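Methods: holo model generation. Sequences were used as deposited, without trimming of termini or removal of tags, and paired with ligand SMILES retrieved from the corresponding compound records. Each pair was processed once, and we did not select among multiple samples. The sequence and copper (II) ion SMILES for this entry were:
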Amino acid sequence: MKTIKIEGMSCNHCVMAVTKALQGIDGIENVKVNLEKGEARFDEKKPVDPDIIKAKIKKAGFDVV
Ligand SMILES: [Cu+2]
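and the model returned the structure below.
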């Protein structure tokens, strides 16, 4: 399980957007986004480039910190 910190989430709509963005990345599964903690947890079934994750999150309108 991997954990990343995400900035800019303020409601469940944001949580859904981040969840979808992460689920759309090849190799990532079991995505769980925590609004209160401002973080996302997921499993990598194969190594995923952190830059790809950052780019996807950014495209959804949020920042990985
Ligand atoms: Cu929101």
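The chain has a mean pLDDT of 97.
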